[in-house]
Amino acid sequence: VHCTGGGLPRDMVVESYYGAPLMARDDTTMGIVAVMHDAPMQVEDWVRPVLGILANRIALEIRRKADDNEIRLAESVFNDNIEAIVITDARGRILRINPAFSRLTGYSSEEAQGETYKLIRSDQHDEAFYRDIWHAFFRDEYWQGEVWFRSRSGATRAVTRAPTLPGLFRT
User: How much is the pTM?
Assistant: First the structure.
């Protein structure tokens, strides 16, 4: 294979090639991996499955890299957000908090993990109030309002909005 000009694929002098598609998750083609030659070539039977395996592996790596980028972006949004963020399981156990939560409440990630909202619950609301919040989460996938919480030092403070992400509680 030889190239003219800048060496871009459109500049290649290709007499024959054999290729395999790089498939995206939605079954669209995101590219092709090809064996090219500047003269006619005969493709051996063993080349087809090997090229297919190579194409699948390349496509997986491209998708993995894209997923890694999405994870880094989400992690950045979570960690750098000025709003306190708490991730819980469906039973209300804290799985993870962001640094803003720690600054607001005084609890470290290690102290909060595995606890429930009772960790920061103030005496401003009764059990029915918290039960209504959880019912709204499950029913509507969000809750919005004002809730008072207690920090590690015992001080109470109001939070005026507490949404959740769509689909969070779906199984």
Answer: 0.67
